[in-house]
Amino acid sequence: MLTVRKLFDGRTYYLDSFQRDYAWEIVQVEKLVDDLAAKFTAQWYETHLEEDTKLYDPYFLGSIIIYRQNGRIYLADGQQRVITLLLMLIRLGTLTEYRHDAGHLHAAVRLLMRGEDHGGQHFAVRVDRYAEFFDQLANDRPFTSDGVPADVRRLHEAAEHLLTRWPEDLKQDALPYFARWLLDRVSLVELDAGDATRGKEMFSAMNDRGKHLAPLDLLKNYLLADAPGDPYQLDLRWQHMVDKLHGPDRDAPLEFVRAVVRAKYVTPAADASQLLESAPHEWLHENAETIGQNRKRDGRVRLFTDVFEPLSRPYVAMLEATSQLRPGQEAIWYNTYHRIPRQFDLALAAAEPNEPEPSVLRKAELVARFLDLFVVTRGVRQLPYGPSELDELVSALLGRVRMTRTADELGHVLGEAAAGWYVHLVEMPELRYLQGGNRSFVLYLLARLTVWLAGGTGHSENVEHLLAVAQGRRPFEVEHLFTKSSGAGTYAAQATSATDFERMRSRLGGLVLLDGSDNASVGGLPLERKLASYLRSNVLAGSLHPDIYRSRGHKRFSTFIAEQGLTELFRPYDVGDPPEAVVNARGRLYRAMAERIWSPESLGLPLSSSTRSPVTAVGNDRGDGGRDVDDDAPRRRQRYNVTLKELIDAGLLRADERLVGRRDGQMFPATLTADGRIRTASGKIHRSLSAAAKAATGAPNPGDWRFWRVERTDDTLFATRARYLLSSGVGQNG
Questions:
Q1: If we measure between CA atoms, which residue out of 284, 315, 287 comes closest to residue 301?
Q2: How far apart are CA 34 and CA 585, in angstroms?
Q3: Nearest-CA neighbor of 483 among 497, 504, 466, 467?
Q4: Cα angle vertex 248, ends 244, 253, to 5°?
Q5: Which whole-number Å values give the CA distances from 473 to 436, 470, 517, in the listed order?
């Protein structure tokens, strides 16, 4: 049994390379201080003498394991407590320095904290990277965390918390009594393992008091314990890797290891079980034969030196791109905004360990764009894109991605996988803003559209700024073109219900992003009175103002939209334009913009001619005014050779389904017959959707698939047909 005094009296402790770093956090420090304080204060009275503390009940701190090597004492287990006790001694030294009633204690503590180096500069726990901090603490010098390793920062946090958690009574009158009791009545059991080999075995089998060995520490021991060569140098390299990973994110080191294992080694024969999450070293041990660790004597350490260490460098850059929008790595930030889990697995699967960092980052951006497209094409259909959906997608692609060598090869693999997703962009005009439901996604979509147009027309804007949260609110908010108060009268005059108006105004084409203060100030004003605010806010909202089309200062705007083939789709608002017509027109515009932002060419995900989806063929409006797909050339129409009867047979529509068409504020009901024809309100039956629409409205070309909407689902027949095409092989389930 060793008291704290005997533990430090003339003894210095060293840590071997297999030992973990200082890992205690505030909760462990609090528990130690609280337990000691409670045990002491329950016995101390002001009338006691200092000598009386010898009769106080003792406190047992548990056991430590040591071994001796080359005349030195090494800690195999218990180093967290020993280091924390050393911090307490250093704190006691500064607290007793100017106490006339504690001079003898001050001298004793100053000797104990130096261990065997009486009067020297070293401390009782000899770790090179801790020495400077111990010295700063002992001499009450300021500490700066800039550039210091994570474990040294934890030392500083522990020392600070020791002082703040220490009860005030124990800093005042009771301090000499508490210090004497701590030195002589608090004790530990010392177990001597004998030599380093036995010490390592006992280290692997034991846990520290109050904090189990962390998975990262156990992994380090597993990989490095039997390594040939200089273990100290390997330990330094490991620590350097961990420190770099700790910089962007405290949990990053362990998640990095898991990501590499998933990316490189998980197979049907070695699946990513819960064991990989809780204990990566055990997973590696169980799957050592499958992943080839046992083929060479140093197979385990090679996992560190040849795989983990080199891949950690580009991984740090990827992590940094999650917190700050960087040119060339924007999609990584976008996926972080959507809280996409494990977005780097495919990038690591494609990366070679010694590949130049720019090449790995190029692959990471391709993967990020691929995942962004996945999110967008599911979000427009209000389908989930969470962990289970991502896991399924990534797992299906891992094998093929691992076989790629270049960014171009990776782009082709991802492009082929995404080929069927583009068709869903045609559903964008039907997307409705549901507050509390899809707000985050709609904000993102509007931000991407806004920034794309701003960048093309020479304005500085970025998605991070538009989506930033400041003091609990967003500087930019979703703005409805037509508010309830401004549109109710007009809409009532057009004989449509308030429910229909609410649905119409919440569709994507009826929305823009607006500065939060402007959004609040324009409130329920009619659209024509909000246009000036729109023009000041951003180009996309400002495109509703007529001045943007005729001002000399907006020449770049006109040039850009002409280059993109969007001239006919951009239209200023004119008082008297029916709200629904405006929303429909803007919806077609947004869809066309999205087809350019998320095109295979823009994303770097090329399609072969055999895998091009219908939407990529018709996505280029070429200034055609946003005509329906069915009004395009016969070559395009033949790709959609789908009948209403097929949709009924597929279960997407029902016999006697009620349909509704809308035009100029009026509603036109119809019924779908069992054989796939349309019965209008007059009772006449039509084989053609366009013929039924013309008969119902009296207009020469009101539309067809987009004109008719299924009353039960509020989806257009166009969107219903797109889902059928996807399920029948034209596209894949994105």
A1: 284
A2: 68
A3: 504
A4: 55
A5: 15, 5, 11
Between β-strands 678-680 and 666-672, what pairing exists: parallel, antiparallel or unpaired? antiparallel
Distance CA 360, CA 349 (A): 10
Looking at 72-81, 557-566, 641-650, 720-729, which range is the least confident one?
720-729
Phi, psi angle pair for 557, to nearest 5°: -60, -50
Supply φ then ψ for residue 252, to 5 degrees.
-65, -40
The count of C-alpha atoms lying within 13 angstroms of the C-alpha of 34, restricted to the half-sphere facing its C-beta, is: 7
Q: Give pLDDT tens digits for 74-120.
A: 998 889 999 999 999 999 998 888 888 888 889 999 999 998 877 67
Q: pLDDT averaged over the chain? A: 84
- Tell me whether strands 708-710 and 658-663 are parallel, antiparallel or unpaired: antiparallel
**Residue 366 near residue 414, CB atoms below 8 Å:** yes
Residue ranges of the alpha helices (H) in 494-578? 498-505, 516-522, 527-537, 539-542, 547-550, 555-563
Is residue 470 classed as helix, strand or coil in its secondary structure? strand
Tokens representing 362 are 């190029």
Tokens of 343: 């977005």
Average pLDDT for 655-668: 85
Burial of 334 (0-12, 13-18, 19+ CB in 10 A): buried
Residue 660 · residue 667 · CB < 8 Å: yes
Q: Where are the domains of the chain?
A: 2-212, 218-426, 427-615, 639-727
Banded pLDDT at 613 (limits 50, 70, 90): very low
Burial string for 667-696 (b: 16+ CB within 10 Å, else e) reads bbebbbbeebbbbbeeeeebeebbebbbbb
Q: How many CB atoms lie within 10 A of CB 39?
A: 17
Radius of gyration, CA atoms only, the chain: 35
Do residues 457 and 555 touch, judged by C-beta distance below 8 A?
Answer: no
Confidence of residue 615 (pLDDT cuts 50, 70, 90): very low
Sign, CA dihedral 9-18-316-253, equals negative
Q: Which residues contact 669 (CB under 8 A, 6 or more apart)?
A: 658, 659, 660, 661, 680, 681
Return the residue matching tokens 């001796």: 68
Q: Residue 530, CB half-sphere, CA atoms under 13 Å: how many?
A: 29
Residue 249 in tokens = 């994110």
Residues 580, 502 contacting (CB under 8 angstroms)? no
| Predicted pLDDT at 609 | 56
Tokens of 730: 């034209």
Calculate ∠ Cα 496-499-504, nearest 5°.
80
**Cα separations in angstroms, 237 against 136, 230, 301, 305:** 26, 11, 12, 9
3-state secondary structure at position 341:
coil
The structure tokens listed for 129 are 């990277």
Would you say residue 400 has pLDDT above 70? yes
489 CB contacts (<8 Å, ≥6 apart)?
A: none
Of 666, 715, 716, nearest to 689 by C-alpha is 716
pTM, rounded to two decimals: 0.63
Question: What is the number of helices (H) and of strands (E) in the chain?
Answer: 38, 13
How far apart, in whole angstroms, are the C-alpha atoms of residue 488 and residue 505? Answer: 11
Three-state DSSP string of 582-619: HHHHHHHHHHHHHHHHCCHHHHCCCCCCCCCCHHHHHC
* 694-699: long-range pairs with CB below 8 Å, 24+: 696/661, 696/668, 696/670, 697/661, 697/663, 697/666, 697/668, 699/663
